[in-house]
Structures are given as structure tokens and as C-alpha cells.
Design brief:
Length: 431
């Protein structure tokens, strides 16, 4: 990653940059935080597309807010009088060295938020030497993305259960052929959920030009022009199955028809058998599921509530980490996503027990706000902030983050039978 400041050798606020300011430094000055990028994205992108990325399940997306509040509640007690001049934020995961402990989470149909976003983020991840996870329903095909990011490319699979998972297995074989370093199987979409704002906004693929959609587009001229130049996004990975000349609508209908029920433990065991490299399961929140995954030989337990997009009653993602990490006990890596918006959030995540984390919206907002420059802006900002925060907290390396003194009031607790305990209501036995 190309971040510059370490908190003790640099100046994140850019003091003295003055006349020699580079374009990248100028962006860092104008958009110092991910909140600035989100505000700019909101202004720049058609409303239905912005709501698609920012929103969650249900009405008003309470689980998105819950993720954020729980993250803010994690406190780290800093340690001082250490030599922080050599802070290292590099780490090894599944046998590969990455320059920082944060990667790009899979985001399907993200080309609707900014055209070619998949390619922009893949290229930035490659340059920054961090993982890039491509979605099954990406808008740039996996063959192309793996070419752009040969050292960073991972593939995320949504199960397509028809014909005994014929297509899921074909997708896995394609991911192997293009050299994906890891396969991520997403568990937390067993059903499709109603996202009220998307329904209200009349969001469909391809866009249907109703008065409200036209109004939204007219208010976002930069986005509209870019969309006009580059074309509406399509589900490129599906072309092989629908036909090279398939229309946007035909590809979308195919996804709608085939992505129905998610995956079962039996499917996961089959995928494990055929996938030769590292495999992670994404969306785990219960220690018993983590245990089952480890027993199947899974290498990564990815704690996530899908960024608050699937189940409003789910615990905040960060609150699930300690119990899962304890259950896994080092037998697999613990990966994390949910409301990572800063280097501090990365440190919080590592401090409560994760080995590596991923961000979704933070990267998406950066590209929506800044276009092609947004990918590198985000990777550089993360690197700078992680290094600065590590130094401030007295954490000298990624491994050392796990030993930080941390207060985590919302952490889920489970009794030996796997029932949630702590300040929850009295439990019946878990089924
Ligand atoms: C627009 C959007 C699309 C997403 N698409 C997928 C997907 O195709 N597959 C998947 O496993 N997760 C998907 N996710 C969930 C992310 O991988 C990740 O779990 C979540 O965004 C993390 O929360 P954060 O956005 O607050 O960082 C999507 C998230 C967003 C915002």
C-alpha cells in the first residue's frame, strides 16, 4: 500500500504540503475521511444507486447503524513510551504476504454505483498489495479481473443450486483456472430480502425509465454521463451460461431465476473437496457454525452480517468476533467485515480477535466520489490511517494487535451449549 504517514514521521493533515501538492495529496486534503467520500458520493450518484450501496435490509436500515454503533463502542487502551518508528502493517494470510490487513469485500452489481468500479478496485488492490474479492454477480467478468489483479484476486461464490449445483461448480472451476487465491462461499443469503428503499426507488436491472428514475438521473449528471459512455452494468460472469450476446435484462433474469436458496453444509463439503486452495465461509455469526466449518476443513471463518443488508435482528458484526475467534482457537483464520471506515476500525477488529478484515462501502464511496482515482485514494488512506493508529495505540505489528487491551461492551457471549448468554434474555436450548 502506498500510504505515507506513520503518525510520527508524517503529517496526515498535510501541513507544509503547499505549492508542491500532488493530485493525490490534494484529494487527501479535500477528502480527509471516508465520511467526506460518502457525502460526495451521495451528491454525485443517482439516488437509487446511492441508496443501493448505502442501504440495508428493512426500513431505514437499522442493522447498518447497529454495525456502526457497536464498532464505535470498542475502546482500545493505548500503550506509550514504545519505539513506534518501525510499525509494520504487513501480514500473511493463506500463505501470501499482504501489505495491510484490509481487503476489498465482494460487492455485486457495484457497476451501477460507478461504471467499471470492479476493475478500478481490482487494479488498486493489486497496486496496494491487498486482497480483492470479486462477487459472483460482478459487472466485470472474473477472467478479466484476475488479469488485472493477479496477486490480489479472490472469488466469492453465491450458490446456484439448480441441477445439483452444476453452475456453482463451473464457477469454482473457472475461479481455479484464472488463479483465484481463495474461494469465499457466502452463507448469509439463504433467501432474498426486501430492501425497502430499493423497492421504493423502483430499482430494477436494467433501469426502467419511470419519472422518478429519470429525475434521479437528471440530478446526477457526472454519473449519467459516465453511465452513458460505459453502458449499464451487466452480470458478466453469467454470459457463459446465457450466451455471449445476452442482453442486460436476460442476464439479470438468469440471476434472478438461479440464485435462489443459497448453500447447505453438504454443498460446502462438496465445494471443499473440489477447491484446491484456501477456502473461507462468509457470513458466520454463531460459534457452532464456525466449529462446523472448521470440521469441514475450511481455512477462513469470515464473520459478517453482510453489512446489515440481510437480517435486521442479527448481532452487530463486530460483536460476533470474540466468541467466534475463541471457538476457532487458531484452527482457521478469522476474517471480518462490517462498517470498516477507518484505520482505527481495522485496529479495533484485530484487537477483538480477527486476523484480517475487509471493507465494502468505504471503497465503493471512494470510487463513487472520485471516479478512477478513488481506488488508490482509498487504499492509500487505509494504509496511512492504519499505520498512524497502530503507532498511536502502541501496537507495533498486526500480530501484536491481538494483545491490545480492549473494552468491548457489546461482545456476544455463548454458554457451553452454544446458547447466547450475557445480558440477553434467558435462553431455551439452541436447535
Ligand atoms: C453494494 C453491495 C453489494 C454487495 N454484494 C455482495 C455480494 O455480491 N456478495 C457478498 O458476499 N457480499 C456482498 N456484499 C456485502 C459485502 O461483501 C460486505 O459484507 C459488506 O459490505 C461489509 O460492510 P461495509 O460495507 O459496511 O464495509 C455487498 C455489499 C454492498 C454494499
Amino acid at each position: 500500500m502506498s500510504g505515507s504517514s506513520t503518525g510520527n514521521t508524517g503529517t496526515p493533515s498535510g501541513w507544509g504540503a503547499g505549492a508542491t501538492e500532488t493530485p493525490a495529496a490534494r484529494l487527501r486534503r479535500r477528502f480527509p475521511g471516508f465520511g467526506d467520500l460518502q457525502r460526495r458520493a451521495k451528491w454525485r450518484v443517482a439516488r437509487f444507486a446511492y441508496d443501493f450501496v448505502a442501504g440495508g435490509v428493512g426500513d431505514g436500515a437499522p442493522n447498518v447503524a447497529h454495525n456502526r454503533a457497536a464498532m464505535d463502542a470498542v475502546r482500545i487502551v493505548p500503550r506509550y513510551a514504545l519505539d513506534v518508528s518501525q510499525v509494520s502493517i504487513a501480514t500473511t494470510l493463506f500463505g501470501r504476504e499482504y501489505a495491510a490487513p484490509v481487503g476489498v469485500a465482494p460487492m455485486g452489481n457495484i457497476g451501477m454505483v460507478w461504471p467499471q468500479m470492479d476493475a478500478i478496485l481490482a487494479a488498486s488492490a493489486q497496486k496496494a498489495r491487498i486482497p480483492y474479492v470479486s462477487s459472483t454477480v460482478a459487472n466485470v467478468g472474473m477472467e478479466r479481473l484476475a488479469e488485472i489483479a493477479p496477486d490480489s484476486f479472490w472469488f466469492q461464490l453465491y450458490g446456484l443450486p439448480a441441477e445439483n449445483h452444476r453452475l456453482s461448480i463451473d464457477l469454482i472451476r473457472r475461479a481455479e483456472a484464472v488463479g483465484a487465491h481463495a474461494l469465499v462461499v457466502t452463507l448469509d443469503v439463504p433467501t432474498r430480502q426486501k430492501r425497502v428503499h430499493d423497492v421504493r426507488n423502483g430499482l430494477v436491472v436494467p433501469f426502467r425509465y419511470r419519472p422518478r428514475t429519470v429525475f434521479d438521473i437528471a440530478r446526477a449528471p457526472f454519473w449519467a454521463l459516465e453511465m452513458l459512455n460505459k453502458g449499464q452494468p451487466r452480470f458478466e460472469n453469467m454470459r457463459k451460461y446465457v450466451g455471449e450476446t445476452a442482453s442486460i435484462g436476460e442476464l439479470a433474469a438468469f440471476v434472478q431465476k438461479n440464485m435462489t436458496t443459497g448453500v447447505t453444509w453438504d454443498d460446502i463439503a462438496r465445494f471443499r473437496d473440489i477447491w484446491p486452495r484456501a477456502m473461507a465461509l462468509k457470513g458466520i455469526q454463531h460459534p457452532a457454525d464456525a466449529e462446523r466449518a472448521v470440521a469441514l476443513g475450511v481455512d477462513g471463518i469470515w464473520v459478517s452480517n453482510h453489512g446489515g443488508r440481510q437480517f435486521d435482528a442479527a448481532p452487530a458484526s463486530i460483536d460476533s468476533v470474540p466468541a467466534i475467534a475463541a471457538a476457532v482457537g487458531g484452527r482457521a483464520k478469522v476474517l471480518y467485515d462490517g462498517s470498516i471506515r477507518s484505520g482505527l476500525d481495522v485496529l479495533r477488529t484485530l484487537a477483538v480477535g480477527a486476523d484480517f478484515c475487509f471493507a465494502g462501502r468505504a471503497f465503493a464511496y471512494s470510487v463513487a466520489a472520485l471516479g478512477a482515482a478513488g481506488g488508490e485514494h482509498a487504499t492509500a488512506a487505509f494504509a496511512e490511517e492504519i499505520r498512524g493508529t497502530f503507532g498511536q495505540a502502541g501496537v507495533l505489528s498486526v500480530a501484536a494487535a491481538a494483545a491490545a487491551t480492549v473494552l468491548h461492551p457489546g461482545a456476544m457471549r455463548f454458554d457451553p451449549e452454544g446458547n447466547a448468554s450475557g445480558n440477553e434474555v434467558p435462553r431455551r436450548r439452541a436447535g
